[in-house]
Amino acid sequence: MPGRKASEQIRRDQIIAAAYQVASARGLKGLTVRAVALESKLSPGLVLFHFRSRDQLVVALLDWLLATTTVLRLGPEVEAVTPPLDRLLAMLRQEMDRLSREPTRIRLFFEFWLIGGRHAEIGTKMRAELTRYRGAFRPTAEAVLAAERARFPNVTPDGLAAVAVSFIKGCAVQAMIDPDHFDIQEYLVAAEGLLGHLASSAEVGALATRRASRRPPTGGESSHGRAKG
Question: Residue 3 belongs to what H/E stretch?
């Protein structure tokens, strides 16, 4: 029945919310059915009715965390940016700012990543979600490379997308390590400056390569060529 299904979903959401609160306070090791039951003000039996085991509850919490943390949703201010490189930088700003404001989620994310090394289902979900998140940057990375090829010689769209995600995740880690003193604006300025420096260096290197390819032969080679002529 539709009404019953709706109420069951509400109850499941209530349990997941309680599981998040428990894991935030105690870590995943402290996530037990009893603790979640106390937090949600439900009986352990009712928790197990909706999630048949602690393991199933942990995986459900991961699904919720991934759906609310690693999904790329561009704001209207980012959508309005048209130059590809500026748009990529705007995406970095948005995601760095968003994730740096959620240190608890990021800490849980990395806890799940560690567990994924010995839990096949969690490991598979984590890898798939990170691949999807990186893939969300790929169209913009392709546009950047098409418009700025001299800046990024020998760089693939997947490579550029991977670097973008590494900046974002690195920002989130720093915010998690020192949430009281981390300055997101300082990080953004430093990241943009570093990216600009790398791009400029790549452009200079590409220019030097082009000049070298047009350089006339050395004196010995030139004389040999004239002697043959």
Answer: helix 2-26
At which of 45, 66, 87 does a domain end? 66
Contacts 24+ apart (CB under 8 A), 16-21: 16/60, 16/61, 16/64, 18/42, 19/57, 19/58, 19/60, 19/61, 20/61, 20/64, 20/65, 20/108
First-residue to last-residue Cα distance in the chain: 94
Classify residue 225: in a domain, yes or no: no
**Could you list the residue range(s) of the whole structural domain that residue 62 is in?**
2-66
Confirm if 13 and 61 have CB atoms less than 8 A apart: no
User: Are 140 and 44 found together in one domain?
Assistant: no
* Residue with the two structure tokens 């700025």: 148
The pTM for the full model equals 0.76
Burial (CB count <10 Å: 0-12, 13-18, 19+), residue 12: middle
Domain boundary among 66, 95, 119: 66
- For residues 156-185, one letter each, b for 16 or more C-beta atoms within 10 angstroms of the residue's C-beta and e for the rest, the string is ebeebbebbbebbbebbbbbbeeeeebebe
**Residues 81-117: tens digit of each pLDDT:** 999 999 998 999 899 888 888 888 989 999 999 999 9
